[in-house]
Specification:
The protein has 768 residues and is α+β, with helices and mostly antiparallel strands. The protein folds into three domains: 239 residues, 3-Layer(aba) Sandwich (Rossmann fold); 182 residues, no CATH class; 203 residues, no CATH class. 46% of the residues lie in helices and 18% in strands. The chain contains 27 helices and 26 strands. Helix 9 crosses helix 25, helix 23 packs across helix 24 and helix 23 runs parallel beside helix 26. The longest helix has 45 residues. It is rod-shaped. The two termini are 34 Å apart. Bound molecules: adenosine-5'-diphosphate and magnesium ion.
């Protein structure tokens, strides 16, 4: 049963109050065709909206199923509209972007009827209104009369007990009006139909009860309910709920009608994603490359222990920074003494036998090689043309080949150098010529071999087999009383049977991929055997022995001041004379990255519990390079990601605006959905679905474009750095970015979606 008791409704617009209904009491039978007549503004639509649960009364009561609706919850009203009421509007109110069939199905969709049942029922009612063949058309492909039939079919679809029609023929010509009225009369056979009209003729022809309104008041009723009439009829009320899939479908269809805009929006909001995708794939690639580089190359960069080490701790760097702080000028007539900066960062390592023994005990498996650079006093005599003279070379021109510690491990030279001709030296008499990546070598070295360096180039053959003469201290230095002096009879020295002949047995060049390590290493390389031999000979030489006993420089005759802080002078001269076993530089070549860690741990352990002066600091060359490149890359990544993140935020604001516009555009649809029983929640869902789709699109577009951009990026990077395929998009990153894009757009669209849900359905239906 349906009964209005003293219902009043006043609309307030600003200061103006308009009473639309004034104490209306009216009861309806379960099955009758009621026409409501009255002039415009008399409150007919308001009455219908209140009966239909679209609008709320101020005072009085609406009794449904003998139950007051005063305490009805919003969801109860939604269910009531969905299952009990079928609305037919003057302007049809069909949803334009979905098919006729979908329009008719919408009420059932909202109440959760299965897809197959929905379609069956929808086609049934469409057949009843004579539009079955038009089921797949869109509303705008139909005439007015046909659209109203669709609206009637929609009103009937959920099989409601009450049909509310608000001037259903108001926009139709008289012929079509008659057809529609016939249809409604037909429906009214087993339902309560309440129809508003201002066409008295139609009302009298079709309706079996006529109710007249004026100024919000009931003025006549042609067939009021008698006291003894049976009122036991009940209406079923079932809960409604829109599934997210329905919301998606609805929004997808809506979006389809504005493809261009959606695509542009999605593209614009994908720019942030593109940026981040590209940056991540680059940094990802660089990480992989750097990792590979570390493993391949940097691990073969030695850990260097030399007499001087840089103490580049963070505190030190900060300290240095303060020292160099030139910002403030001091207005004092004083001078501050300052320790030389170099002294502050340079640590003097006192390498001694103890330490060498410690180094020798490193697990051999961890190292590919170990090289000791000892001051070997290579007294070399050369014969250039007809003149004999000692060879003076830079330290860097002469290097010893690191000795292999483990038979299974390829020696560092073999790993890093290509032998271009000949072989690696294996005995103390054999030497190797190493050239740089462009086959260059110091002309001084070539001259030592009596090669004419005025020529543009020298063939490999020319240098192969060339010889140098090595002379030992006892021949090289002559004793004069307490002092020694250089033997200047170089020809005799050169031809002496004591001289050792060093012969070039091979030419080598740094491997192409190891260029960074070997580029500067051109010169003469000799075996450790030679070093051992020279040192053992020189150790026992007269000059070294004399020097060990003396407190002064036996070579130059200058006094040593032993009390001087520069205590190493005596030892330095002995090393200079090639009489010391203690190396000046130790290079440790770890097998790989992990073993390097272990080697470093081992070296650190030595320093534990030692005074700073007794500590031996090392320089990890590989780490210096990798931490530099790694941290630069990290910094760049962070900055770029931050920029892109800003564009993501901007795009989510944009999505908010777009969604807001969409809410404005879809206001009518919101009203229709609400009239069909959609809950506020469902409306939110519709717009969330829209932003979900846009977010997904923009995520996918972003990832696709980002991925496509990695190709040109790789071409550019390869041309700049020779590293192939650096930019790689990690699929996990791609997935996360799509999710981020969807989340951000949904956040952006959240407020407009909430606004949409709050819209008053009556107002929403009024908008055009
Ligand atoms: P009818 O359908 O009989 O033409 P209505 O029920 O639409 O009349 O309106 C009754 C009165 O209430 C009218 O004066 C109208 O201007 C006013 N009215 C209706 N809806 C609103 C509203 N949402 N806000 C303000 N006034 C309204
Ligand atoms: Mg009206």
């Amino acid at each position: 049963m349906l009964k209005l008791e003293n219902i009043s409704k006043t609309y307030t617009t600003g200061d103006f109050k308009q009473q639309a209904l004034n104490k209306v009491s009216l009861e309806f039978r379960k099955n009758e065709f009621v026409a409501i007549l009255g002039p415009s503004g008399s409150g007919k639509t308001t009455l219908l909206n209140i009966i239909g649960g679209l609008d709320r009364y101020d005072t009085g009561d609406l009794i449904i199923n003998n139950k007051s609706t005063k305490k009805f919850k919003t969801t109860e009203w939604d269910s009531y509209r969905n299952n009990c009421i079928g609305f037919i509007f003057q302007n049809y109110n069909l949803i334009g972007h979905i098919s006729i069939l979908d329009n008719v199905e919408m009420g059932m969709t909202l109440s959760g009827v299965s897809a197959s049942n929905r379609k069956k029922k929808a086609l049934e009612v469409l057949d009843r209104v004579g539009l079955k063949e038009h089921a797949h058309k869109r509303p705008n492909q139909l005439s007015g009369g046909q659209m109203q039939r669709v609206a009637i079919a929609r009103a009937l679809a959920n099989d409601p007990d009450i049909i509310l029609a608000d001037e259903p023929t108001g926009a139709l010509d008289s012929n079509t009006s008659v057809q529609i009225m016939e249809l409604i009369k037909e429906i009214a056979k087993d339902k309560l139909v309440i129809m508003v009209t201002h066409n008295a003729e139609l009302a009298h022809t079709y309706a079996n009860r006529i109710v007249e309104f004026k100024d919000g008041q009931l003025i006549s009723d042609s067939n009021p309910i008698k006291k003894n009439e049976d009122k036991k009829d009940k209406y079923k009320i079932k809960k409604t709920a829109m599934s997210f899939f329905t919301a998606l479908k609805l929004s997808f269809n809506n979006i389809r009608t504005k493809k261009g805009r959606t695509l542009l929006t999605a593209f614009a909001s994908s720019i942030g994603i593109i940026g981040i995708a590209l940056i991540l794939s680059l940094s990802n690639g660089f990480d992989i490359e750097i990792d590979k580089f570390e493993r391949d190359t940097l691990s073969s960069m030695p850990v260097m222990i030399s007499e001087q080490a840089m103490e580049m701790t963070e505190e030190k760097l900060l300290e240095l920074n303060n020292i160099n702080d030139m910002e403030e000028y001091i207005d004092e007539e004083v001078i501050y003494p300052q320790q030389p900066i170099v002294d502050q960062v340079l640590h003097t390592n006192v390498l001694n036998e103890d330490y060498i023994n410690y180094i020798e005990k490193i697990d051999g498996k961890l190292l590919a090689g170990i090289s000791y650079t000892r001051a070997t006093a290579l007294n070399i005599i050369t014969k250039v043309g007809d003149t004999y003279k000692p060879l003076s070379l830079n330290m860097t021109d002469l290097t010893s080949i690191p000795k292999k510690m483990d038979k299974d491990v390829v020696g560092v030279i073999e790993a890093n150098y290509d032998i271009l001709m000949g072989k690696l030296p294996t005995s103390k008499e054999e030497i190797l010529i190493t050239i740089d990546s462009r086959n260059r070598i110091s002309s001084k070295i070539l001259e030592a071999f009596d090669i004419d360096t005025t020529k543009e180039k020298v063939s490999f053959e020319e240098i192969m087999g060339k010889e140098l003469k090595l002379v030992f201290n006892d021949d090289y230095y002559k004793q004069l009383g307490n002092f020694f002096t250089l033997n200047t009879d170089f020809e005799a020295l050169y031809n002496s049977s004591n001289a050792l002949t060093l012969k070039v047995v091979g030419i080598a060049r740094g491997k192409e991929d190891k260029e960074a390590l070997t580029a500067s290493n051109s010169g003469i390389s000799y075996t450790e055997d030679l070093v051992d031999y020279i040192i053992s000979e020189n150790k026992n030489s007269k000059i070294v022995k004399a020097q060990m006993d003396a407190d002064y420089n036996v070579l130059t005759g200058e006094q040593f001041d032993i009390s001087n802080e520069n205590q190493t002078s005596k030892e330095t001269l002995i090393s200079y004379l090639g009489g010391s076993d203690i190396p000046m530089i130790i290079n440790l070549f770890p097998v790989d990255f992990n073993s390097k860690e272990q080697v470093l741990n081992y070296l650190d352990k030595y320093n534990e519990g030692r005074e700073i002066d007794d500590q031996i600091l090392y320089t990890d060359l590989g780490n210096i390079i990798s931490s530099l490149s790694g941290s630069i890359m990290d910094a760049i990544t962070i900055v770029l990601v931050a920029f892109s993140a800003i564009s993501l935020v901007v795009s989510s604001i944009m999505i908010g605006i777009i969604t807001y516009i969409s809410v404005l555009e879809r206001t009518k649809e919101i009203g229709v959905l609400r009239a069909l029983g959609a809950r506020k929640k469902d409306i939110t869902r519709v717009f969330n679905a829209e932003t979900f789709i846009i977010g997904l699109c923009s995520g996918l577009i972003g990832i696709l474009i980002g991925w496509l951009l990695t190709f040109p990026a790789n071409i550019i990077i390869e041309s700049l750095t020779d590293l192939p395929n650096v930019a790689k998009l990690n699929p996990v990153h791609a997935l996360i970015l799509i999710i981020i894009s969807m989340s951000l757009t949904m956040i952006g669209g959240f407020i407009p979606a909430k606004m949409a849900a709050k819209k008053d359905p009556v107002e929403a239906l009024r908008t055009e």
